[in-house]
Protein backbone atom coordinates (compact mmCIF):
# COMPACT_ATOMS: atom_id res chain seq x y z
CA UNK A 1 0.00 0.00 0.00
CA UNK A 2 1.24 3.51 -0.79
CA UNK A 3 2.24 5.75 2.10
CA UNK A 4 -0.61 7.96 3.42
CA UNK A 5 0.30 11.28 5.01
CA UNK A 6 -3.25 12.59 5.48
CA UNK A 7 -3.95 11.32 9.02
CA UNK A 8 -1.28 13.43 10.73
CA UNK A 9 -0.96 16.16 8.12
CA UNK A 10 -1.94 19.21 10.21
CA UNK A 11 -0.28 17.88 13.36
CA UNK A 12 3.01 17.55 11.52
CA UNK A 13 2.62 21.06 10.11
CA UNK A 14 1.78 22.44 13.56
CA UNK A 15 4.81 20.86 15.19
CA UNK A 16 7.29 22.25 12.70
CA UNK A 17 5.59 25.65 12.45
CA UNK A 18 5.58 26.03 16.23
CA UNK A 19 9.26 25.13 16.47
CA UNK A 20 10.20 27.76 13.88
CA UNK A 21 7.97 30.42 15.44
CA UNK A 22 9.32 29.83 18.94
CA UNK A 23 12.95 29.91 17.85
CA UNK A 24 12.69 33.46 16.50
CA UNK A 25 10.75 35.39 19.17
CA UNK A 26 12.40 38.18 21.19
CA UNK A 27 10.13 41.00 22.45
CA UNK A 28 7.00 38.88 22.78
CA UNK A 29 9.00 36.37 24.83
CA UNK A 30 9.61 38.91 27.59
CA UNK A 31 6.11 40.03 28.57
CA UNK A 32 3.19 38.34 30.28
CA UNK A 33 1.60 35.80 27.91
CA UNK A 34 -1.45 33.63 28.34
CA UNK A 35 -4.10 31.66 26.52
CA UNK A 36 -7.42 33.48 26.97
CA UNK A 37 -9.51 30.35 26.89
CA UNK A 38 -13.05 30.99 28.13
CA UNK A 39 -12.40 34.72 28.58
CA UNK A 40 -14.37 35.93 25.56
CA UNK A 41 -18.07 35.51 24.94
CA UNK A 42 -21.22 37.30 23.88
CA UNK A 43 -21.06 39.49 27.00
CA UNK A 44 -17.42 40.54 26.54
CA UNK A 45 -17.25 41.43 22.85
CA UNK A 46 -13.65 41.89 21.83
CA UNK A 47 -12.40 43.04 25.25
CA UNK A 48 -11.39 41.00 28.30
CA UNK A 49 -10.56 42.68 31.61
CA UNK A 50 -7.85 42.03 34.22
CA UNK A 51 -7.99 43.59 37.71
CA UNK A 52 -5.42 46.19 38.71
CA UNK A 53 -3.98 46.13 42.24
CA UNK A 54 -5.39 48.51 44.85
CA UNK A 55 -3.39 50.89 47.05
CA UNK A 56 -4.05 52.66 50.35
CA UNK A 57 -2.72 55.28 52.79
CA UNK A 58 -1.64 54.67 56.38
CA UNK A 59 -2.40 56.87 59.38
CA UNK A 60 0.11 57.65 62.17
CA UNK A 61 -1.20 58.29 65.69
CA UNK A 62 0.29 58.48 69.18
CA UNK A 63 -2.37 56.34 70.86
CA UNK A 64 -3.77 54.20 68.06
CA UNK A 65 -7.12 56.05 67.98
CA UNK A 66 -8.09 56.43 64.30
CA UNK A 67 -11.74 57.27 64.93
CA UNK A 68 -11.24 60.77 63.60
CA UNK A 69 -9.30 59.70 60.51
CA UNK A 70 -10.69 59.01 57.06
CA UNK A 71 -10.52 55.36 55.99
CA UNK A 72 -8.87 54.51 52.68
CA UNK A 73 -11.12 54.10 49.68
CA UNK A 74 -11.22 50.73 47.96
CA UNK A 75 -10.98 51.49 44.24
CA UNK A 76 -10.66 48.61 41.82
CA UNK A 77 -9.44 49.27 38.30
CA UNK A 78 -9.14 47.01 35.30
CA UNK A 79 -6.69 46.53 32.46
CA UNK A 80 -8.43 45.69 29.21
CA UNK A 81 -7.08 43.20 26.70
CA UNK A 82 -8.30 44.17 23.23
CA UNK A 83 -8.51 41.59 20.47
CA UNK A 84 -6.39 42.40 17.42
CA UNK A 85 -6.72 41.37 13.78
CA UNK A 86 -5.84 37.86 12.62
CA UNK A 87 -2.28 37.09 11.60
CA UNK A 88 -2.63 34.55 8.76
CA UNK A 89 -0.22 32.90 6.35
CA UNK A 90 -1.52 30.43 3.76
CA UNK A 91 -0.36 28.40 0.78
CA UNK A 92 -2.02 26.28 -1.89
CA UNK A 93 -1.68 22.64 -0.95
CA UNK A 94 -0.71 21.56 -4.47
CA UNK A 95 2.35 23.81 -4.30
CA UNK A 96 3.35 22.41 -0.94
CA UNK A 97 2.48 18.76 -1.45
CA UNK A 98 5.81 17.55 -2.74
CA UNK A 99 7.82 19.38 -0.10
CA UNK A 100 5.51 18.21 2.67
CA UNK A 101 5.64 14.56 1.70
CA UNK A 102 9.38 14.63 1.13
CA UNK A 103 9.98 15.92 4.69
CA UNK A 104 11.14 19.35 3.55
CA UNK A 105 8.92 20.99 6.15
CA UNK A 106 11.67 23.16 7.63
CA UNK A 107 12.45 24.71 4.26
CA UNK A 108 8.79 25.29 3.48
CA UNK A 109 7.51 26.57 6.82
CA UNK A 110 10.38 28.67 8.14
CA UNK A 111 9.44 31.71 5.99
CA UNK A 112 5.77 31.41 7.00
CA UNK A 113 6.59 31.22 10.71
CA UNK A 114 9.11 34.04 10.40
CA UNK A 115 6.58 36.27 8.64
CA UNK A 116 3.90 35.85 11.33
CA UNK A 117 6.49 36.26 14.10
CA UNK A 118 7.95 39.40 12.50
CA UNK A 119 4.56 40.98 11.89
CA UNK A 120 3.49 40.18 15.45
CA UNK A 121 6.64 41.65 16.98
CA UNK A 122 6.49 44.78 14.81
CA UNK A 123 2.87 45.33 15.77
CA UNK A 124 3.43 44.64 19.45
CA UNK A 125 6.59 46.79 19.62
CA UNK A 126 4.58 49.74 18.31
CA UNK A 127 1.93 49.02 20.96
CA UNK A 128 4.63 48.95 23.66
CA UNK A 129 6.15 52.23 22.48
CA UNK A 130 2.83 54.08 22.48
CA UNK A 131 1.88 52.78 25.91
CA UNK A 132 5.14 53.28 27.85
CA UNK A 133 4.80 56.09 30.39
CA UNK A 134 8.41 56.56 31.52
CA UNK A 135 11.36 58.12 29.71
CA UNK A 136 15.14 57.98 30.10
CA UNK A 137 17.42 60.40 28.29
CA UNK A 138 16.49 63.05 25.73
CA UNK A 139 14.28 62.10 22.75
CA UNK A 140 16.16 62.11 19.47
CA UNK A 141 19.54 61.28 21.01
CA UNK A 142 20.95 57.81 20.43
CA UNK A 143 22.23 55.62 23.24
CA UNK A 144 25.95 55.02 22.87
CA UNK A 145 27.22 54.38 26.39
CA UNK A 146 26.33 51.88 29.08
CA UNK A 147 25.61 54.61 31.62
CA UNK A 148 22.75 55.73 29.35
CA UNK A 149 21.35 52.21 29.53
CA UNK A 150 21.83 52.34 33.30
CA UNK A 151 19.78 55.54 33.41
CA UNK A 152 16.74 53.53 32.31
CA UNK A 153 17.34 51.11 35.17
CA UNK A 154 17.53 54.08 37.54
CA UNK A 155 14.24 55.42 36.15
CA UNK A 156 12.48 52.11 36.83
CA UNK A 157 13.93 51.81 40.33
CA UNK A 158 13.30 55.43 41.30
CA UNK A 159 9.73 55.16 40.00
CA UNK A 160 9.02 52.32 42.41
CA UNK A 161 8.87 49.47 39.87
CA UNK A 162 9.37 46.18 41.74
CA UNK A 163 12.15 43.73 40.92
CA UNK A 164 9.93 40.70 41.45
CA UNK A 165 10.02 39.82 37.75
CA UNK A 166 12.53 40.37 34.93
CA UNK A 167 13.35 43.84 33.60
CA UNK A 168 14.44 44.08 29.94
CA UNK A 169 16.03 46.76 27.76
CA UNK A 170 15.92 46.48 23.95
CA UNK A 171 18.12 48.32 21.44
CA UNK A 172 18.56 48.18 17.67
CA UNK A 173 21.60 46.45 16.09
CA UNK A 174 23.58 49.68 15.55
CA UNK A 175 23.20 50.61 19.21
CA UNK A 176 24.44 47.12 20.03
CA UNK A 177 27.53 47.78 17.91
CA UNK A 178 28.18 51.09 19.67
CA UNK A 179 27.78 49.56 23.10
CA UNK A 180 30.12 46.73 22.13
CA UNK A 181 32.95 49.22 21.69
CA UNK A 182 32.42 50.38 25.29
CA UNK A 183 31.92 46.94 26.83
CA UNK A 184 34.46 45.99 29.45
CA UNK A 185 33.67 43.54 32.24
CA UNK A 186 29.94 43.23 31.64
CA UNK A 187 28.55 39.70 31.74
CA UNK A 188 28.50 37.99 28.37
CA UNK A 189 25.15 37.43 26.74
CA UNK A 190 23.59 34.31 25.39
CA UNK A 191 23.81 32.22 28.54
CA UNK A 192 20.10 32.02 29.27
CA UNK A 193 18.55 28.60 28.88
CA UNK A 194 15.38 26.72 29.65
CA UNK A 195 12.28 28.01 27.87
CA UNK A 196 14.09 31.00 26.30
CA UNK A 197 14.02 30.89 22.49
CA UNK A 198 17.18 30.52 20.42
CA UNK A 199 16.65 34.00 18.94
CA UNK A 200 16.29 35.41 22.44
CA UNK A 201 19.58 33.86 23.56
CA UNK A 202 21.36 35.24 20.51
CA UNK A 203 19.78 38.66 21.11
CA UNK A 204 21.17 39.03 24.65
CA UNK A 205 23.99 41.57 24.79
CA UNK A 206 24.51 41.21 28.52
CA UNK A 207 22.75 39.83 31.58
CA UNK A 208 22.28 41.42 35.02
CA UNK A 209 23.15 45.04 34.29
CA UNK A 210 21.70 48.08 36.09
CA UNK A 211 18.74 46.07 37.33
CA UNK A 212 17.99 44.58 33.92
CA UNK A 213 17.91 40.81 33.66
CA UNK A 214 18.68 41.18 29.95
CA UNK A 215 19.84 43.90 27.58
CA UNK A 216 18.71 42.71 24.15
CA UNK A 217 19.03 43.62 20.51
CA UNK A 218 15.83 43.71 18.43
CA UNK A 219 15.17 44.56 14.79
CA UNK A 220 11.46 45.23 15.33
CA UNK A 221 11.55 48.42 17.43
CA UNK A 222 8.94 50.95 16.31
CA UNK A 223 9.66 54.45 15.05
CA UNK A 224 7.78 57.66 14.23
CA UNK A 225 8.58 60.94 12.49
CA UNK A 226 7.96 64.18 14.33
CA UNK A 227 6.10 66.74 12.20
CA UNK A 228 7.39 69.97 10.77
CA UNK A 229 6.47 73.02 12.81
CA UNK A 230 8.54 75.40 14.88
CA UNK A 231 6.24 75.75 17.88
CA UNK A 232 6.40 72.59 19.99
CA UNK A 233 5.42 74.38 23.22
CA UNK A 234 1.85 75.06 24.23
CA UNK A 235 -0.28 75.36 27.35
CA UNK A 236 -3.11 73.55 29.05
CA UNK A 237 -6.36 75.22 27.98
CA UNK A 238 -8.32 73.77 30.92
CA UNK A 239 -7.73 71.81 34.10
CA UNK A 240 -7.32 68.12 33.21
CA UNK A 241 -9.13 65.48 35.23
CA UNK A 242 -6.57 64.32 37.80
CA UNK A 243 -8.66 61.72 39.66
CA UNK A 244 -7.65 58.07 39.81
CA UNK A 245 -11.29 57.05 39.50
CA UNK A 246 -11.33 58.45 35.95
CA UNK A 247 -7.99 57.00 34.91
CA UNK A 248 -8.05 53.63 36.68
CA UNK A 249 -9.37 51.48 33.81
CA UNK A 250 -7.36 52.93 30.92
CA UNK A 251 -4.41 54.52 32.74
CA UNK A 252 -4.71 57.37 30.25
CA UNK A 253 -5.55 61.06 30.63
CA UNK A 254 -6.90 63.76 28.33
CA UNK A 255 -4.80 66.93 28.21
CA UNK A 256 -6.68 69.88 26.63
CA UNK A 257 -3.98 72.02 25.00
CA UNK A 258 -3.64 75.20 22.98
CA UNK A 259 -0.97 77.59 21.60
CA UNK A 260 0.99 74.92 19.73
CA UNK A 261 1.82 75.35 16.04
CA UNK A 262 -1.19 75.79 13.78
CA UNK A 263 -2.44 72.43 12.50
CA UNK A 264 0.42 70.60 14.21
CA UNK A 265 0.26 66.80 13.80
CA UNK A 266 1.39 65.18 17.04
CA UNK A 267 2.48 61.60 16.46
CA UNK A 268 1.61 58.60 18.61
CA UNK A 269 4.69 57.82 20.67
CA UNK A 270 5.76 61.44 21.23
CA UNK A 271 6.52 62.52 24.79
CA UNK A 272 4.98 65.53 26.52
CA UNK A 273 5.97 67.19 29.80
CA UNK A 274 4.14 69.68 32.04
CA UNK A 275 6.38 72.30 33.62
CA UNK A 276 6.33 72.35 37.41
CA UNK A 277 4.58 68.99 37.85
CA UNK A 278 7.02 66.40 39.14
CA UNK A 279 6.95 62.62 39.12
CA UNK A 280 6.40 60.59 42.29
CA UNK A 281 7.75 57.17 43.23
CA UNK A 282 4.69 54.92 42.99
CA UNK A 283 5.74 52.93 46.04
CA UNK A 284 6.75 55.69 48.49
CA UNK A 285 4.75 58.54 46.84
CA UNK A 286 7.82 60.74 47.35
CA UNK A 287 9.31 62.95 44.59
CA UNK A 288 11.83 61.28 42.28
CA UNK A 289 15.22 63.01 42.65
CA UNK A 290 17.90 62.65 39.96
CA UNK A 291 21.69 62.57 40.38
CA UNK A 292 21.89 66.39 40.29
CA UNK A 293 19.46 66.76 43.17
CA UNK A 294 16.66 67.98 40.88
CA UNK A 295 13.12 66.64 40.89
CA UNK A 296 12.21 64.66 37.78
CA UNK A 297 9.44 66.31 35.77
CA UNK A 298 6.31 64.35 34.90
CA UNK A 299 6.06 63.07 31.33
CA UNK A 300 3.44 61.17 29.36
CA UNK A 301 3.31 59.43 25.99
CA UNK A 302 0.75 60.39 23.33
CA UNK A 303 -1.11 57.19 22.40
CA UNK A 304 -2.97 58.40 19.27
CA UNK A 305 -1.81 60.61 16.41
CA UNK A 306 -3.60 63.94 16.94
CA UNK A 307 -4.12 66.85 14.53
CA UNK A 308 -4.43 70.22 16.28
CA UNK A 309 -6.63 72.97 14.87
CA UNK A 310 -5.64 76.31 13.38
CA UNK A 311 -4.93 77.81 16.78
CA UNK A 312 -2.82 74.85 17.85
CA UNK A 313 -5.56 73.51 20.11
CA UNK A 314 -6.88 70.01 20.69
CA UNK A 315 -7.02 67.12 23.13
CA UNK A 316 -3.98 64.92 23.67
CA UNK A 317 -4.62 61.47 25.13
CA UNK A 318 -1.54 60.36 27.07
CA UNK A 319 -0.63 57.22 28.95
CA UNK A 320 0.80 57.36 32.46
CA UNK A 321 -1.70 59.92 33.85
CA UNK A 322 -0.76 62.78 36.18
CA UNK A 323 -2.91 61.88 39.22
CA UNK A 324 -3.23 64.18 42.23
CA UNK A 325 -5.83 63.64 44.96
CA UNK A 326 -6.15 64.67 48.59
CA UNK A 327 -5.63 61.20 50.08
CA UNK A 328 -2.58 60.55 47.90
CA UNK A 329 -2.99 56.78 47.60
CA UNK A 330 -2.67 56.79 43.82
CA UNK A 331 -0.87 60.09 43.18
CA UNK A 332 1.72 60.09 40.41
CA UNK A 333 2.65 63.82 40.60
CA UNK A 334 3.41 66.22 43.45
CA UNK A 335 0.81 68.80 42.40
CA UNK A 336 -2.15 68.98 40.07
CA UNK A 337 -1.70 70.27 36.50
CA UNK A 338 -3.91 73.32 35.89
CA UNK A 339 -4.95 75.54 33.00
CA UNK A 340 -2.08 77.69 31.79
CA UNK A 341 0.66 75.17 32.62
CA UNK A 342 3.30 74.92 29.89
CA UNK A 343 3.14 71.69 27.90
CA UNK A 344 6.21 70.74 25.85
CA UNK A 345 6.67 68.16 23.11
CA UNK A 346 10.13 66.72 23.60
CA UNK A 347 12.52 66.32 20.68
CA UNK A 348 13.03 68.22 17.46
CA UNK A 349 10.68 68.77 14.53
CA UNK A 350 10.99 66.74 11.32
CA UNK A 351 13.01 63.96 12.93
CA UNK A 352 12.61 60.20 12.67
CA UNK A 353 12.80 58.73 16.15
CA UNK A 354 13.24 55.06 17.12
CA UNK A 355 13.23 54.78 20.92
CA UNK A 356 14.84 51.93 22.77
CA UNK A 357 12.35 50.20 25.05
CA UNK A 358 12.70 49.14 28.67
CA UNK A 359 10.08 47.34 30.74
CA UNK A 360 9.10 45.10 33.64
CA UNK A 361 7.60 41.80 32.49
CA UNK A 362 4.20 42.77 33.91
CA UNK A 363 4.01 46.06 31.98
CA UNK A 364 2.25 44.43 29.04
CA UNK A 365 0.47 41.22 28.16
CA UNK A 366 -0.21 39.25 25.00
CA UNK A 367 -3.07 36.81 25.18
CA UNK A 368 -3.96 34.50 22.32
CA UNK A 369 -7.64 34.14 21.53
CA UNK A 370 -8.76 30.56 20.77
CA UNK A 371 -9.98 30.45 17.17
CA UNK A 372 -13.07 28.49 16.19
CA UNK A 373 -12.69 25.34 14.16
CA UNK A 374 -13.29 25.53 10.43
CA UNK A 375 -15.10 22.88 8.37
CA UNK A 376 -11.74 21.34 7.59
CA UNK A 377 -8.97 19.33 9.22
CA UNK A 378 -7.70 21.52 12.06
CA UNK A 379 -4.95 21.24 14.66
CA UNK A 380 -4.20 23.73 17.42
CA UNK A 381 -0.68 24.18 18.75
CA UNK A 382 0.31 26.11 21.87
CA UNK A 383 3.70 27.58 22.76
CA UNK A 384 5.25 26.90 26.15
CA UNK A 385 4.09 30.32 27.38
CA UNK A 386 0.49 29.94 26.23
CA UNK A 387 0.16 31.41 22.71
CA UNK A 388 -2.09 29.24 20.54
CA UNK A 389 -2.16 28.78 16.76
CA UNK A 390 -4.57 27.02 14.44
CA UNK A 391 -3.34 25.00 11.50
CA UNK A 392 -6.06 24.19 8.94
CA UNK A 393 -6.16 22.07 5.83
CA UNK A 394 -9.12 22.51 3.53
CA UNK A 395 -10.24 23.24 -0.01
CA UNK A 396 -11.23 26.24 -2.04
CA UNK A 397 -13.91 24.44 -3.99
CA UNK A 398 -14.72 27.53 -6.07
CA UNK A 399 -11.07 27.81 -7.07
CA UNK A 400 -10.67 24.01 -7.33
CA UNK A 401 -7.68 24.18 -4.99
CA UNK A 402 -6.52 22.54 -1.77
CA UNK A 403 -5.17 24.94 0.86
CA UNK A 404 -3.20 25.09 4.10
CA UNK A 405 -3.42 28.09 6.44
CA UNK A 406 -1.90 29.14 9.75
CA UNK A 407 -3.79 31.55 12.04
CA UNK A 408 -2.98 33.45 15.21
CA UNK A 409 -5.17 36.09 16.87
CA UNK A 410 -3.73 38.01 19.82
CA UNK A 411 -5.18 40.38 22.40
CA UNK A 412 -2.89 43.15 23.69
CA UNK A 413 -3.11 44.68 27.15
CA UNK A 414 -1.34 47.44 29.08
CA UNK A 415 -1.10 46.05 32.58
CA UNK A 416 0.83 49.04 33.94
CA UNK A 417 2.25 51.84 31.73
CA UNK A 418 4.41 53.04 34.64
CA UNK A 419 6.34 49.75 34.40
CA UNK A 420 7.75 50.64 30.95
CA UNK A 421 9.58 53.46 29.21
CA UNK A 422 11.35 54.76 26.12
CA UNK A 423 15.13 54.98 26.28
CA UNK A 424 17.33 57.64 24.67
CA UNK A 425 20.86 59.00 25.02
CA UNK A 426 21.94 62.13 26.83
CA UNK A 427 21.72 65.57 25.25
List the helices and strands and how they pair.
Layout (H helix, E strand, L loop, with lengths): L8 H14 L9 E4 L11 E5 L26 E6 L3 E6 H9 L3 H26 L3 E3 L9 H13 L8 E5 L1 H9 L16 H6 E6 L2 E6 L6 E2 L7 E4 L7 H4 L4 E7 L6 E2 L4 E8 L18 E6 L3 E2 L6 E6 L22 E4 L6 E2 L2 E5 L3 E5 L8 E6 L5 E9 L4 E8 L1 E5 L5 E4 L4
Parallel strand pairs: 1-20, 5-25, 6-8
Antiparallel strand pairs: 2-3, 3-24, 4-23, 6-19, 7-8, 9-18, 10-11, 10-17, 11-16, 12-15, 13-14, 13-17, 14-16, 19-25, 20-24, 21-22, 22-23
Explain how this protein is built.
The protein has 427 residues and is an alpha+beta fold. Helix content is 19%, strand content 30%. It contains 7 helices and 25 strands. The chain has helices spanning 9-22, 93-101, 105-130, 146-158, 173-181, 198-203, 244-247, and strands at 32-35, 47-51, 78-83, 87-92, 134-136, 167-171, 204-209, 212-217, 224-225, 233-236, 252-258, 265-266, 271-278, 297-302, 306-307, 314-319, 342-345, 352-353, 356-360, 364-368, 377-382, 388-396, 401-408, 410-414, 420-423. The strands form 6 sheets. Strands 5-25-19-6-8-7 form a 6-stranded mixed β-sheet. A 6-stranded antiparallel barrel has the order 10-11-16-14-13-17. A 5-stranded mixed β-sheet has the order 1-20-24-3-2, with helices on one face. Helix 1 (9-22) crosses helix 3 (105-130). It is globular, with a radius of gyration of 24 Å. The N and C termini lie far apart (74 Å).
Task: Write out key terms for the chains shown.
single chain, 427 residues, alpha+beta, 6-stranded mixed beta sheet, 6-stranded antiparallel beta barrel, 25 strands, globular
